[in-house]
Every structure is written in C-alpha cells, then in structure tokens.
Amino acid sequence: MTTADSHNGRRLTARGAKTRTRIVTAASDLMYVKGVRATTLDDVLAASGVSKSQLYHHFDGKDALVRAVIDHVGERVIEREREALGHVSTIRGLRRWRDALVQNNALRHGAYGCALGSLASEVSDHDALARQALSRLFTEWQGLLAGVLRRLQDGGGLAPEASADQLATGLIAALQGGYMLAQTARDVTPMATALDMALAHIESLSKG
Amino acid sequence: MTTADSHNGRRLTARGAKTRTRIVTAASDLMYVKGVRATTLDDVLAASGVSKSQLYHHFDGKDALVRAVIDHVGERVIEREREALGHVSTIRGLRRWRDALVQNNALRHGAYGCALGSLASEVSDHDALARQALSRLFTEWQGLLAGVLRRLQDGGGLAPEASADQLATGLIAALQGGYMLAQTARDVTPMATALDMALAHIESLSKG
DNA sequence: ACCTAATTGGACTAGATAGTCCCATAAGGT
DNA sequence: ACCTTATGGGACTATCTAGTCCAATTAGGT
C-alpha cells in the first residue's frame, strides 16, 4: 500500500475499510471502461452505492481517488504477473504467458487495452504523482520479466551477454504497443504479432 | 481529405477555409498537450481567436471537431513518415529514422507521447468513427514500414522468407509502446530501447 | 451505560461546458 | 447594383460536475 488507508491519518474501522474498498473497486472498473476523465464522481457513487460524504470522507477529491485506483489496479496487475511469471524459466513458459494475455484480450476484441497502460496514457501528462506511481509499477513489471530472462540465461536458454533489462523493456513495450494497436483495430492480432516478434527475438538470442 | 470541407456540403470561401484551418490546428495542438477530453471548446476558441458561431458553422459539435483533428494530425504524421521512409531501403536508413524519432521525443523528455497514439488510446473506446479513421492511419503507417522492409528484402538485406507485414506491425508496436513508457517515465530511454530491440531483430534476420 | 470519533445521508453551491440563437457583416455571382 | 449565401460576434441556456456542509447514526473503547 503506497497510499495511506485514510486520507488524514484517521483510524479506520472494518466498516469504513469495506466502504473505501467498494469505492475504489467501482471507480477502477468504471475508469477502465469509460476512461478516467469520463468517469464522474456521481458515476462512482451510483455504481458503489455510497453517498458523496463517504467518498469525500475517504478521499480528498477526484485526483486522490484516481491515485487510489492506480494503486489498486497496479496491485492487481502486479499480483497477476507475479503469479504468471514468478517461476517461469523457459521460453515455453514465456509463450504460455503470451497466450494467456492474448486470449484474455481476445475476449474483449482488444477493447479497453491494458488496465495499467490506459491509465498511464490518460494520466501521465496531467498528474505528476500518478505518473510516478505508474512509472514505479511499470518498473516492477519490467523487473518480473527481467527475472524470467535471467533465469533463462542461468539455464542456458539465453545468451549471457544479452541484457535482460533491455530485453524486458522491449518486451513490455511490444506488449503495450500491441494493446494499443489492438484497441484501435478492435482486433487482437496486432498484439499477438508484436509479442511474437519480441519472443522470436529473445529466442533467437539463444543461438548466438 | 476523408472529411468534407464543410459539414453540410456548403460552399466554402477562401476566408472560410482559413478559419476552419485555424480552428483545426489550434484544436490539434491543444488536444495533443492537454488531451481530447480536457480540451474545451472555449479553449479552442481562445487559442484560435474565432467565435463560437464559427466553430458550430464549420463543425457539428465536439465529436466532429475531434474527427477533423484526427484527419489533420494523421495527414501530418503520414506525410512526415512518407518523407522519412519513402525511399529508405537499408538498415542504416531505418536507424536514421529511429534516431530522428528518438531525438524529437527527447526534446520533450517523452511528454505527450505519439500524436496519433495519444489520440487513439483516448478516443478508440468512445467514438467508433474516430477509431476507424485512426485504424486506417496506423495501417497506412504500417504499410510505409512494410515497404521499407520489402525494399530491404529486394536488396538482400533481409531474408525473403520473413514477413514484412508482421515485422512492420511489430516495429510500430515497439514504437508506440516505447512512446507510452517514455511518457510515463518522462525519459526517452525506454522508447529508444524498444526501437533498438525491434531493429536488432530485423537485422538479425539478414543472417538467417 | 457513556462518550468520543468514525461513518453515513443527501441537499446545496459555484463554476464550467456543450450547445443554441439572433442579428450583423462580407463575399460573390448575375 | 442587388440578392443570396457564407461568415462572423457574442450573449444566453440547460446541464453536468466537483466540491461543501450539516445533521443523523453507528461503532468501539472505558
């Protein structure tokens, strides 16, 4: 938790925590689908069934709510990726990771893009704190991928002179760019193609 | 021009065309920096120095203006890319293209991202017509890159069995993902790294 | 039981924003 | 010259939205 549980260091009862969570999850869902700017506080209230005073009791305003949403979505994504990547040490494992992402995105025909990427492109130029939080999350994600690549190197599946960090950055970029193209085309194909190119490159470095 | 010069098939005098252009260019700049949703019509009026009736004379509303902005920005980007890529037929030429994009983005420390990509991620889930226009623009851009790769193949600089189209898609995805990561980190490095990975992959396919 | 603080409900306000309207002026064809 | 149409200025409206406020209720420690 990078954000305080309550915005003013107040104590938080079980009921209060539950309300806070309801607000954040509702806001997260709405902002993913409608976008941050297009999601109004009234939308959040209606979706979560809480009143305005509760929202302002837990958050200083919309910006603070957006930051809480970033923390929440970030935690969910990182958790998912940690489970998916934490013990991967082969190219085949990396391909399974790719398949899961592609299949998941195919369900929506590419719509909405990456939960983190959409937030990032909408918020980065507008809120410095939010941007930094997102930047840290991407760094963490990149670290998980770099870990996989290093394990690959340890097992001889990737040339030791390759830079795991740079390859991980390239892999995330391909993923994010793929998400965006898929969102625009309403078709997963470009996302799959982009990931395949990145993976093919990594694989090719085992035969260097 | 995919959009009619005037929204109702009216005739357009030189003065009218000039006003229309002033509106679109001002809106394009504002929406690039502030985002589409955060740019109000009053912002556009103030920046372009025209009155509200003129705006509604030329456009049916904000959505129509956004679509005109997409056409305008798209034309500019495609024109720039056509000049940069139209006659490139070597890896070195592709690297010069990379350098120009990276240097240009470095001037802003990554802020604002790609003119087309930012529009795409903000608008794709909200306006089907706009999304389709952007999708066509990305396809055109991808076609320019595929052309380069095919010329590379003709000159023996790329294995003929490689798919120029898929590599071009991967290249654009790396670029767009790189833009997004650079925007979030406020640092061009990830964009440069992503492009370098894509180019290294293409280069590696000449020695297959 | 009692007292303090957390929690909740919801009306209310100030300001922003997309869109409308009406009338004035300029242009260009005939 | 004249008449039609394009262009222009800007006040006005309806609505939406973030944020405020106050009073009522619940929880939890002692």
UniProtKB/TrEMBL annotation, chains A, B:
Coiled coil: none annotated. PROSITE patterns: HTH_TETR_2 (PS50977). Residues 17-77 form the HTH tetR-type domain. Keywords: DNA-binding, Transcription, Transcription regulation. Residues 40-59 bind DNA. GO terms for molecular function: DNA binding. It holds the Pfam family TetR_C_13_2. SUPFAM superfamilies: Homeodomain-like (SSF46689), Tetracyclin repressor-like, C-terminal domain (SSF48498). This is TetR/AcrR family transcriptional regulator. It comes from Microbispora hainanensis.
